[in-house]
Structure prediction request, 124 residues.
Amino acid sequence: HVQLVESGGDSVEAGGSLRLSCVVSGYFSKRCMAWFRQAPGKERQGVAAIVTGAHNKYYAGSANGRFTISQDYAKSTIYLQIDSLKPDDTAMYYCAARTDSDFVNLQLARSYNYWGQGTQVTVS
Prediction:
């Protein structure tokens, strides 16, 4: 059984930075994992994806070079670094994992099998 636990969300001023963490319990290797975000009244939006234990990375167009996804394999953790935060970045950020490493349909929320509880990012 896979569990995902996010942390690192906070209330920050515009222009600041945050690093979100997602600790994975259970099988970590060769999994497609992603960060999504959802603002109130809006659909869940894929931000970035990575294959654990590999070099594949993907960023949605909306990432605009301000988001960086990374992993620490030894800690079974993936990260999302967000720089130059804007009020539009305010959302609940979710970590998601698949049971496969297929690097397709990365922004399709229903293709992910496991989800964390989310961590809130508020930018003012």
